[in-house]
Amino acid sequence: MELPLLIGVTGGIGSGKSMVCKLFECLDIPVYYADSRAKWLTNNDPEIREKVVALLGNEAYDREGLYNTRFVASSVFKNEPLLKALNAIIHPVVLRDTKEWAGQRTGAPYVVKEAAIMTKAGQANAVDYVVVVEAPVELRVQRILQRDNRTEQEIRAIIERQVSDESRREIADYIVNNDDASELIPQVLHLHDTFLKARSSRH
Q: Over the range 21-60, which residues count as b (16 or more CB within 10 Å of their CB) and which as e?
């Protein structure tokens, strides 16, 4: 049986990519939330655990055996080689998990993968198209202030560390504007129709 199209949805913190994915779910499209799934795999996959401990030491997991996010973040923060090594451990397992998940959803015309980090469609990531969700930085900051227990300084530091909007546009097949002036639902419905047509054109 043919696999469904895999659509990647990405965007910076506060852009609203999760909201876009929830709208796809309202259309009965399955969504794979890569970042939360990566957290689950980091806690539960023995291959990841063994390699992370080898890379960062036993402190990478706490006494309860759970991934020590605070320790790991402080270890890799401002240490690019270490961060790359950590990603090289986790990302291949998430990619394999994504493919298995998509392969179990052959009844869907397409499926969506939400991830903060993404490469261009076809670049060793299995996605057929990439949708980038955008919003102005100031609006993103206000959204996160209302949503998370973070200071404005912390939020701006996170945005600074993330991929730039310009870099995301370079990998985008489609862009969703999630500013206060643009309506989100019509944009998602248009994408839905586009992906249904792309799926049917395969036959």
A: bebbeeeebbbbbbeebbeebbeebeebbebbeebbeeeb
Residue appearing with tokens 């209302």: 146
CA 34, CA 39: separation in Å to the nearest integer? 9
Mean pLDDT, the chain, whole residue set: 92
Here the tokens at position 183 are: 């309506």
Whole-number Å distance between alpha carbons of 195 and 197 = 5
The reported pLDDT for the residue numbered 78 is 78
What is the pLDDT, as a whole number, of residue 124? Answer: 66
Q: Which of 99, 108, 109 is nearest to 202 (CA)?
A: 109
Report the alpha-carbon distance of residue 129 to residue 167 in Å, rounded: 16
To which residue do tokens 């949708």 refer? 131
Both tokens assigned to 132: 């980038």
Regarding pTM above 0.70, the answer is: yes
Query: What gap in Å lies between CA 52 and CA 61, rounded to an integer?
Result: 9
Cβ-contact 42, 52 below 8 angstroms: yes
Please tell me the distance from the alpha carbon of residue 137 to that of residue 134, in angstroms, as a whole number. 9
Go through the chain and tell me how many residues it has.
203
**Could you tell me the CA-to-CA distances from 22 to 32, 116, 136, 184, 193 in Å, in that order?**
11, 16, 21, 11, 16
